Structures are given as structure tokens and as C-alpha cells.
Amino acid sequence: MAKEVTSIYQSIVEEMTEGVVFLDADDVICICNPAAERIRRVKAERIIGRSIYSLHPGRMHDRIRQLIESLKSGRISSGSRIIHAQKRFFSNSYTAIKAPDGTYLGTLLISRDVTEEKRLREENESLRSRQSDEKMKCLVVHSDAALRVMDMAVSLGQIDSTVLVTGENGTGKECVVELLHQNSPRRNGPLVKVNCAALPDNLIESELFGFVKGAFTGATENRKGKFELANGGTLFLDEVGDLPLASQAKLLRVLQERKVQPLGGKSEVLIDVRIVAATNHILSDDVAGGKFREDLFYRLNVIHIDVPPLRERREDIEPLAEMFLDKFSTQMNKPVRHLSTEALNILLHHHFPGNIRQLEHAMERAVALSSGELILPDDLPQDLLSASVVTTAQHTIQGGLALKEAVDFFERDYIAAALKQCDYKKSKTAEHLGISRKSLWEKIQRYNLTDASVT
Question: Where in this chain does the record put each Sigma-54 factor interaction domain (predicted)?
Fold first, then answer.
């Protein structure tokens, strides 16, 4: 019977997925199971019979000795530490093993490879940091259009339905996803992002579904995919419209069956995730053009949230700009910058094809280049200044100016922009405008555009 029990114990140790190493009372290694060989990347026959200290030189040697001596003395019954070796991270726990009479029999060392967990945690922290900024952007809204989107995201967080978030690049789709997750029962679970547009075709399946050791060249260990890593939380499929058709079919199967099969694996793994997808594509057009599967579209488009572009929510431009000015002034250790009336007018009439992201970058540049506490038109990017001339005519019509006043208003701004573009060189500016140098000079005087730099 004793032999049978011993055999059972041996089988348990050999089949454990955690690495098991046992040191005798003299700190000599006498057991090293297959999982420990794999995790530590060492053959058992090379370390069995050797002192644990011979494997760990320098400061690590001293720390391990101090820990084991504390176990032997009874000051502690167990201890744990994270070590970094061979470009991987391991969680090692040390437990004192004693006989019923208190005799110290040895030290049980259990190892777990936590590299993937650490990578996911860092990825989550990075994503949450970015999403924290996105959330702040989303909260700084005055427009009815943006408030409706926010309210919808908060209320939909309470249900587990799949949500498709659409909108142009830079509108804040990630902010909506963060609100959905943070207001859901899954808020304490992970929020895992997959940028479908950034994944090479040959890596999409391994990233989404994981793989087992030996599944392909370079697969030296088992690795969980994003679906498994998001278990109990939310999986964010960003830029889902960029998935190739072959991968769309496999994604559809997972969404239908709620199971994934790692590459090279023989068994399937049940998953419990909420799916939120986002895209800047008009997926119905992609379906019509044969670029996106119709059945996957309907599977993803259970609930649809469309995030409006910044040009359709102009009430948000000023508060967003001021928020970004405050943020970058702090980051650059400068007094807080504020928009001049002229700079604000340019922003309010810009089309913003890059949406909130473009506004953010413009404010970062303005803070970096400004010399005073007011942001002036010259501090703004050239693309905003060029576009402002085009929109001036629309602004004057809305302002109710008489035709002559409107023409003067437009001509003044147009000449000012031309002067700036031509580095305030009168000859070059006159040629650019198709008028004589004398006519340009007269208009400069008339509109009080004299500048010390005009030559």
C-alpha cells in the first residue's frame, strides 16, 4: 500500500503544470518534475544532486540562503518572490516541509511562469492609461450629440450584448468602449484590446486563439490567445473591418460557439467574454462589396453606437482645446496656456478631418511653440491656418455683414494669410496674389497689416 501511495504521489508531481523542485534538509535538489524542467529550461539530471546555491551566484544566492534559513528557523513557514531570468518572469514560492515531530525535512519550491500574465498586466495598464485620457476627453463635452453617445454607453454597460462602435478615426471610439466596460458587471475583469489592422495575416489566429507548443516553427511553449486572456472581462476588437475574410469566418465561429481552439491544440476552451468591436469602415458598404461577411456583420451589429465627428459637435471644440492646453502646459512645465480670440475662431471654423486626435496634436504643438500665455494663430499648425481662410467667407455670411464689409473682411484675412505663407516678402506675396507691389502696399496700409518683418 505504501508503494502504491508513493507511486500516486510521484504521478501527481510529474503531471502537475507547476514546476516542482524539492530540496532536502541540506538544500540539495532531489526532485525536479517535467514542468520545472520546461519552466526553468534545464534538464533534471543536470541539477539533481546539486546544492540550490550552486545554481544561483551573487546576490540571488544570498537572498535564497536567507529565505531558506528563515524557513528552517521557523521565523516564516513560506515565502515567495518573482524572479527575472532568461527574458522570462517566474513566481517562486518556498514552503518548509516538516515531519510531525518538527524535524525539518526540506524545502518545497513551486514555480509558475508568469511572463504572459505580466505582459498582459502591463498591456492592460498601458491601455487603461490611454483610455483614461480618452475617458477624460469624452467627459469634456457640451454638445447634445456627444452627451447622447456617453449616456448610451453608460446604460448599455449593464447588459452583455455585443456592441459595434463606428466613427471616423480620432473621434474617441476607445472612450466609448472604456465607458461600456467600466459600467458593466465585468468592470473588475480585464479589458483586452486587439488592433485587427496591425496584425499580420499569418499571426491573427495565433494572437486571437493562442497556440500550443510545437504548433509552428518558433512555438516553443503554450500561449493563450486574446480571447482566453479576456475571460471574465471585455474583448475589444478594434478596426475589425480590416480583418481578412478567412479570419472573419473563424471569428464568426468563436462568436457563435463561445469556444476557441488554440492552433495545434486538440481540445477547445470555453470562453466567457463580452465582445465590443469598433471600425471606421461603413461595414454595410463592405458587405455589399464582398469585403466583409454579412453573417459576421449581423453578429457584431447587435447594438450600434455611432460616434459623431468633431465638425458635427463644435460646442466641444473649445472645452477640449482648453483641456489639452492645460494637459500639455503641465507636461512641459509651462504656465497654463489659453486660446486667443483669433486662434479660437480658427479652431471653431476648421473642418478637423482628424477629429479629436488632430485637435490634441495641434494644442501640443501650440504649447511647445508659444512664447506667451496666449495661443496665437502663428502657434497653430499650417493646415489649420490655410483652411481658416477658406471658411472666412462662410463666417462673414453667418455674421450678417453687408457685402462691402464682407468683401473687405475676407480680403484682409486672405492677404494676411498670403503674407504669412510668403514669409512677409512683398514682391513674392504680390506675385502670389496676382497684383502689383504698389497695390499690395496700399492694401497693407489700408488693413493695418504692417509688420516689422515685411520686406
Answer: 139-368
